[in-house]
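Service request form, structural biology core

Requester: graduate student, group of Dr. S.
Request type: structure prediction, single chain
Budget code: on file
Notes: please return the result as structure tokens.

Sequence provided:
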Amino acid sequence: MHRTYSMRNQRLPTASEMESPLPPPSTTKSNKLFGGALGHAFRKNTAGAFGPSVSKKLSQLVKMEKNVMRSMEQASRERMDVARQISEWGEGCDDDVSDVTDKIGVLLYEIAELEDQMVDRYDQYRLTLKSIRNIEKSVQPCRDRMFIL
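Core staff response, request fulfilled:
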């Protein structure tokens, strides 16, 4: 078996991985206040309850995007677990089966790592939306005064 791509042995980072570092990890990976659909419903309903209508809508969008991001993150974690399990399952089989299951495990794990990187970049997008929301919230009083005049 070609051990360069194996779930059972650690591999060194490639030149492209060393050249272009990954974005910072997602902000939702470490802290969860609520879990599941209940938390999503609560966040969605309370998002932007106060303030201008544009920032209210942006707040709701940011909260919905957070739920999407958490779902993608969960799918990525589950795919990594499946990759490990299929590789471990094939380890006790014949050499041919072991080789194929290990390679499938590597491919699934690589896909999961790419999904995890996408979650990190998706979080960067959410941060941009948050900054737009904050700018809209700060500019709205000036717009209201101009409308009154």
